[in-house]
Amino acid sequence: MSATGLGVFDTTVQKTNLWLKDLMEVLGWEQKQKAYDALRAVLHALRDRLTVDEAAQLGAQLPMLIRGIYYEGWDPSRDPERVRHKDEFLARIGQQFKADEGIDPEQIARAVFTVLENRVTKGEIQDVESVLPAELRELWPCSPRV
């Protein structure tokens, strides 16, 4: 029997749980809420750095529920943020975890990018990486390190 009464909702909840499980495994975490917070923080930081077209193309490959998280609060009329340095990008992620001093924003970014690398098409990942500056590209698991 369907948990929500709609198969499409059950499917997206299941897919979202798989993404969170993957992220928890990569980070070695057991708290799903913390994994959700990490996924959300990195997706928002990435989305706001991408061009509108690239942000939309990436969003189209996300499961429906994660896509909603991704687009939450987005204003596509704003220009992409001009974050050029890894420290700026990681500081944005770190803002979501101010109360938890044990959190490493770089570890979180690398983990979310690993999940994206495993769950989004290679072509889309290449497109995303191509619009990022070198310091941010080095956070991706398959990118050459600078």
Task: Please give a structural write-up.
- By secondary structure, the protein is mainly alpha-helical.
- The protein has one domain: Globin-like, CATH 1.10.490.110.
- It is 63% helix and 0% strand.
- It contains eight helices and no strands.
- It has helices spanning 7-27, 32-49, 52-59, 64-71, 86-94, 105-119, 122-130, 134-137.
- Helix 1 (7-27) crosses helix 2 and helix 5 packs across helix 6 (105-119).
- It is globular and about 45 Å long.
- The mean pLDDT is 92.
Note the main attributes of this structure:
146 residues; mainly alpha; Globin-like; 63% helix
Categorize the overall geometry. globular
Average pLDDT works out at 92
Q: Percentage of helical residues? A: 55-70%
CATH fold node name: Globin-like
Number of helices: 8
In this structure, how is the largest beta sheet organized?
none
- Ends: how far apart? 51 Å
SSE blueprint:
Blueprint: H1 7-27, H2 32-49, H3 52-59, H4 64-71, H5 86-94, H6 105-119, H7 122-130, H8 134-137
Produce a short descriptive summary.
Helices cover 63% and strands 0% of the residues. The chain is mainly α.
